[in-house]
Amino acid sequence: MLDNSEIEQLSDQELVKLTLVDQGCFAYLIMRYRAKLLNYIRRITNVRDEEAEDILQEVFLKTYLNLNSFKPSLKFSSWIYAIAHNQVISNFRKIKARPEGSSVTIDEGLAETLAADLNLEKAIDQKLLAQKIDKALQALPAKYREILILKYLEEKNYQEMSDIIKKPMGTVASMLNKARSEFKKVILETKILRYDE
Amino acid sequence: MMSDQQFNEAVLEKIQTDKIKPLPKWLFVWRNVLIWSLGVLSLISGSIAVSLIIYMQSLDEWGVYQSMKLNYLEMMSVMVPIFWLVSLALFVGLLYYNVKKTERGYRYRPIYVVAGALALSVALGIVCHFAGVSRWLDDFLSERAPYYERVMSPALSYWSDPASGRLIGIVTTELIDDRFGLLSPEAREWEILWESNKDRHQPVLLPGLVVKCLGRQVGEGRFVAEQVLPMVPGRKFFKRGQKDCPHRQWQEVTCSRVLVERLGGGAYEVRTYWQLR
To answer: Do B39 and A50 contact (CB within 8 A), yes or no?
Structure first.
């Protein structure tokens, strides 16, 4: 039997194999992805914490149920993010409306990356910048908000984004461009932030 | 909000109380096999549709219809095998759907998937045509498929209109003194007078051949033919009522060619070259 520190050293793929033999090992996968997926769900849905947790629980149950369908040719993180993405869509379909909830917390460092990439003003307090970006993101249509979140807040590359939202990389790139311009439009219209010349 | 520990326990407890187990691997393998099989089936069906489209155009009768002075729409309705084109579109759509349902299908742009599915169907369709699949299938369908003459081969209905100068049927007697017998799809006997054949390349008219006659009806069961053309696609349609006509033999045109020459002043010369099996 492996001890805790040895298990923690294992890759995701190895943990999946172990989980198929020993159900208890699934706890390590949950620990690795709980915080990341919870943030992702909250960011793309804007639901309350309790609701996000319910969605996340469903995500892990589906992950466990479909463990045998996981192919090592895909990154485990992309695979589990794709399950989360689908679960969110299915939840929206069930309630047939986008729920309103609390605001999303955006990591200040990441907010700065996004601001730099979109030429947003830099002379602003980091915390305030994160709040303003969050406000602008909330005003975007869900598909554009999600693609920006995947790129700038979840820091996924094009291949990973393609595997998560199940769209070709070319489509991901054009969606991202469109999302950037929509984001700029929201910022200009609402005057939340200014652009650097 | 639950702590990490509480959340972990809640998920694992739910797995245990609901007795959730990972779905077996074979289920995913079978799902993949099913998707790929349906994809291959759609590809084969699309190819068959393509081969039948090619087969139906194999006589290259545009010239004949031009000589009949049909307008473009009429020509399209007779010549274009809409049923098979729609089938092709449907099977390409199904193939696209199946490719998209495969594990990596989402990575390809829809336009490339559709173009690839169409190109594969056309390539395989050409192979099927030259391998004789289209001919065999058209014979099979024309002999057995319901509504064949209206749905799959609209030319058959179009040519079954003696009052408008178009008659189709199976030759029942040899050509003697420019006359031969013909049995139309409604099992009606006709006497065909074909005077104008003297100046033309003479087709071999033997009982059992399926022909299209262009001319005019001159009385009850009598028809004057100006042109007599071979019929290849849909020919076995005439085998359906064969039991009722014990005298009828069956002749097959294995190769036929229709040459249309523009004579000027809107006139055309139509020559047919037939070869019997």
So the answer is: no
